[in-house]
What we know:
Strand order of the largest sheet: 1-2
Helix content: 55-70%
Largest sheet: 2 strands, antiparallel
Structural class: mainly alpha
Amino acid sequence: MQAYCERNCEERRAQKRLHYQENRETILEQRHERHLENRDVILKEISENRVVNSAQNHEYYFENRDDILDERHKNDVENRQATIDRVINRRQSTSERQLKSAVFGSSNFVYPKMNNLGPLNTECQYCEAVHFKDELKSMCCHNGKLSHFSV
C-alpha cells in the first residue's frame, strides 16, 4: 500500500502533465516571450561588459606595454634557445650513437669467428704461385692444366 505522500505526488504529476498537454501552445509562447525579453537585456549587458573590459585591457596594456614586450621578447629568446638546444642534443646523440656503433660495435651483433688460413707459403709445383695450404688448386693453374703467360 502506498503512503499518502507517494499517491499525492503521482496525482500532482498527472495533473501537471494534463495541464501541459492542454495548454502546450500557450506555455511555449510565454516561454518564447520571456526568452526574447531576457535576450535583449542579456545582450545589452554583454555589450556593456565588452566595452568596459576592452577599455580596461587597453589601459592595462598601455601602462605595462614595455614590461609586456620585454617579457614576450625574453620568452621568444628562451623558446628559440630551447629549440636550438634540443636540435643540437638530438644531432649529438645521433652522431655519438653512430660513432659508438662504428668503434665498439653493437652489443647485440654477433661477430663471425676469425678465419685463420695459415701462412702463405705453399708453392705450386707447376706455376710456382704461392698460396695457402688449404686453398683450392683451381686458384692458380689447375695442377698444370693451364699455362699463364708471363707479363
